[in-house]
Write a structure and sequence with these properties.
It is built from 18 helices and 14 strands. The chain is α/β, with parallel strands linked by helices. The protein folds into three domains: about 180 residues, NAD(P)-binding Rossmann-like Domain (Rossmann fold, 3-Layer(aba) Sandwich); about 90 residues, N-(1-d-carboxylethyl)-l-norvaline Dehydrogenase, domain 2; about 130 residues, 3-Layer(aba) Sandwich (Rossmann fold), CATH 3.40.50.720. Strands 3-2-1-4-5-6-7-8 form an eight-stranded mixed β-sheet, sandwiched between helices. It has a six-stranded parallel β-sheet with strand order 11-10-9-12-13-14. Helix 9 crosses helix 11 and helix 9 crosses helix 12. The model has no long low-confidence stretch (mean pLDDT about 90).
């Protein structure tokens, strides 16, 4: 690697989704990068251009800036860096609680090997109090290391664009708020506002951002359901809300099937636990969780309402989309998988352009090679992930290959008027 910025290479530890995107984004700013992961085979696969995540623009970005990044499974290669980011995706359990064990182990291992004076930056999402405890451990070990917490901005399906053009950086600091030179140079390279605050504020800031997003999601879903019952159209209402300065043009006003993915659920659970620990009220969080669970069942309710789950003659169901949203391979808390599991006694054909499921877990499911093949002879088609290719589906051909005419498109991937004109029984969230 030929050094072009900084006083040495920048290290990234933990090459899951966050680490892969963050490290190549740093390379795109012409910093030399050493990207480390201790898991067998990860660095070799990345070095060969085989990525375990799907993101628009990722392969092109790597191809363009490959000379500035080196992947390794040797901790020694990254521990010599004077600026080291910890970018491991923190896993959650079935109750959406974080497991920080692997992150703690990586921090202990790398900090023990890092040179005195190095700057460590935790980007992995952690609960309030985590960085303060790590800083105290470093001090007790008499290590001259600076520790910061940087709020990550990863959004599945739009991760590359957001990483290259961040809206702002939020940096949590310990006793000394001054950001050292090499870290400051890194932040300056992205030309966005940098907000510094204490560790606990930054850790809670990430949770606060997601809570406000969940609030918008829940409010939108609640009102969209009312629209469905009274003959109103939520998308008409949303256009008015975007013109209200108190809400704004960028507000999240698209109805959905509850909260999916992983980070939002984790932060809702974390907020609930913090409130319980500190004796504060979290009734609003309980309402969000109830609303999310109800909206996840929208497709199942519509199937029952339409009388399409008659056990005497099981309908042939087709599902387009398994990812929890377009642009990602993730199925964490996916409404599509929840629906498929609920319909275990019905034959289902599925298609997703990215996601591959283990059929041993879904014996009633047949994976098809294309969207049209999945819909062939189907009585009902449910579009559970609004991938762009579904929006481009030839509607007359779709009508011809289906046996029935029930088309449930919660996110509005298809043109509603065109579907109705072809005689589809078309249902969409919020109308």
């Amino acid at each position: 690697m030929s050094q072009t910025k900084g006083s040495g290479p920048i290290g990234f530890v933990g090459l899951s989704h966050l680490g892969i995107i963050s490290s190549i984004t740093a390379a795109a700013q012409e910093f030399d990068v050493v990207a480390f992961d201790p898991r067998a085979g990860i660095s070799e696969a990345l070095a060969l251009g085989r990525f375990p995540v799907q993101e628009p623009g990722l392969e092109d970005l790597v191809a363009k800036h490959r000379a500035h990044i080196r992947y390794t499974d040797r901790a020694e290669d990254v521990s010599s860096c004077s600026l080291i980011f910890f970018t491991l995706d923190v896993p959650t359990d079935e109750s959406n609680r974080s497991d920080l064990t692997e992150l703690r182990n990586l921090l202990a291992d790398i900090s023990a090997k890092a040179a005195d004076g190095a700057t460590l930056v935790v980007m992995s999402q952690v609960h309030p109090g985590f960085c303060r405890s790590i800083e105290q451990t470093l001090r007790s070990n008499r290590r001259r290391l600076r520790l910061f917490y940087q709020v990550e901005t990863l959004v599945f399906g739009n991760a590359v664009a957001r990483a290259l053009r961040p809206e702002r950086y939020v940096v949590g600091c310990g006793e000394e708020a001054a950001i050292p030179g090499i870290y400051s140079e890194f932040l300056d390279a992205f030309h966005c506002p940098v907000l510094t605050m204490r560790y606990e504020s930054a850790e809670l800031c990430k949770i606060a951002i997601n809570c406000f997003l969940v609030s918008s999601v829940s409010t939108t879903n609640m009102l969209a359901e009312i629209c469905e019952k009274i003959g109103a159209d939520w998308m008409e209402i949303a256009s008015a809300l975007r013109l209200d300065k108190r809400i704004g043009p960028h507000a999240y006003l698209s109805p959905g099937l509850g909260i999916a993915g992983g980070n939002l659920e984790r932060d809702v659970v974390t907020t609930q636990n913090l409130a319980a620990q500190q004796g504060t009220d979290a009734g609003l969080v309980v309402a969000w969780q109830y609303n999310s669970a109800r909206r996840k069942e929208w497709a199942l309710r519509v199937l029952h309402e339409e009388g399409l789950l008659d056990q005497t003659r099981p309908s042939q169901l087709a599902v387009w989309g398994l990812a929890y949203k377009p642009g990602t391979h993730s199925t964490k808390n996916s409404p599509a998988l929840a629906l498929i599991q609920s319909l275990h006694s019905y034959p289902i054909r599925v298609y997703d352009p990215v996601v591959h499921i283990h059929l041993s877990e879904f014996p009633h499911v047949t994976v098809m090679p294309s969207a049209l093949e999945a819909a062939r002879e189907a009585d009902v088609l449910l579009i559970m992930t609004p991938w762009r290719e579904f929006s481009e589906a030839p509607l007359p051909e779709l009508k011809n290959v289906m046996h029935g005419a029930s088309l449930f498109d919660p996110f509005g991937a298809l043109d509603r008027d065109a579907c109705l004109a072809l005689g589809f029984n078309y249902r969409r969230l919020g109308s």
